[in-house]
Amino acid sequence: MNPDTAVVQLEGVTRTYRQDGVDVDALRGVSVSVCKGDFAVLVGPSGSGKTTLLNMIGGLDSPTEGRIWIAGSDIGRLSKVELSQVRLHKIGFVFQEFNLIPVLSALENVEFVMLLQGLPESQRRARASTLLRDLGLEGLEHRRPNALSGGQQQRVAVARAIAAEPIIVLLDEPTANLDSKTGGALMDMMRRLNEDQGITFVFSTHDSMVVERARRVIRIRDGQIEADERRSA
Question: Considering the domain boundaries, does residue 24 fall inside one?
Fold first, then answer.
């Protein structure tokens, strides 16, 4: 797949960090494409490089060597302002700790990215309300994060990530802070979003339950991709 047709493409990406005076390769010569409609997981032991790879896919980190294209743009050629605009308009993020704004309600948290995008209030409010309803949070729109359960906060975070209609949504250990029942329900919900709306999801995970629900499994070890398996729906 070429950079013009992939949602995200990495070519020969190496990421080296300086640690205790020694160079450590978190990624080594990784080449991989994410396709529209993927429901993919990055799996591997701790320290394998999967979080670094997720950050590369999202433009949160830059390679020591290699090139990355997001929506056809070579991000290595973009200014910081241009790259921030790509992240704002093209990529949705769901972090392990949810990262909801504590002083905002669930509705306001979902609206926040759309506010940064400059969408009018009526459009923001309508879309945020619809998403929260679709994700089973109707009636909880005006609660702040501390008045929501972990599973409810995670669903608000997912709603916020997809509200701006990004081309890809990235999730770092999405079930790490949830019990198995809540985590399974969350994954099933995102699988429906993937199937019904074609939203592209990429997860970093240790959770076998997440891996079981994936349609693509990318296995990483020692900073390299050792297997890339696509499954039938």
Answer: no
The residue type of 219 is R
3-state secondary structure at position 38: coil
- Over residues 168-184, the pLDDT tens digits come to 999 998 888 788 888 88
The span from the CA of 78 to the CA of 76, in Å, is 6
Q: What are the C-alpha distances in Å from 211 to residues 110, 176, 184, 214?
A: 27, 13, 11, 5
Going across the sheet that includes 22-34, the strands are 22-34, 8-19, 65-70, 73-74
- 144 has which bridge partners? none
11 within a domain of the structure (yes/no):
no
Q: At what angle do helices 106-117 and 80-90 cross, to 10 degrees?
A: 130
Q: The pTM is what?
A: 0.89
Cβ proximity of 220 and 40 under 8 Å: no
CATH number at residue 139: 3.40.50.300
- 92 is a domain residue: yes
